[in-house]
Amino acid sequence: MIRTQLVRPRRDPVRPPSGNAGGVAPGEAGRPLAWDGGRLLPADGVEIRPARMDDDERVRGFLKGLSPHTQTLRFFTGLGNPGASMVRALLATDERRDVLLAVCEDAVVGHAMSFRGGGNDVEIAVVVTDDWQGRGLGSRLVRRLLRRAAAGGARTVGMDVLGGNRKVLSMIRKEWPEAVMRVSSGTVEVSTKIDPG
């Protein structure tokens, strides 16, 4: 299991686009954004933001809500009742670890983390709740995580994928056709270059 992060950056307050209060503006990769009383959010209402230590109960609820199949694809085992130490590990951030959460209203619907070290500049792991799978949220989390890693100097990324996780392996082949994949004990070790763009 990977750990995670950098310091949360300070951001200037977001103002609605002029003449568009309550309207829609283009966002990441052309996604429409909706003004939500103080911030711009994608039209699906999901905010991707750095994790905070006060997210512990949200993350615990997120983990409990994952199906056993999804738990196994991400953690290579079922979780049962996630303990405090596991939740802390999934929220821990420092100069080597980064954690992003996808939050809809007050519920965590996705978790992505990176860890600097190992055979690549950064190792990543991502999981999205069952109800949000297949909507591109995992790809959004990965892109944001890799942009942050590249800004910190990372040039290569690695990940371990369960051999039966055909959706993720297919996405990797599509997004990173040059990725090197090596099968090892039922998992696929993936390594590729980070596109800093």
Automatic annotation (TrEMBL):
GO molecular function: acyltransferase activity, transferring groups other than amino-acyl groups
Signal peptide per UniProt: none
One protein family per Pfam: Acetyltransf_1
Gene3D superfamilies: 3.40.630.30
Coiled-coil stretches: none
Domain N-acetyltransferase: 46-197
Region entry Disordered, spans: 1-33
Protein origin, superkingdom: Bacteria
Protein name: N-acetyltransferase domain-containing protein
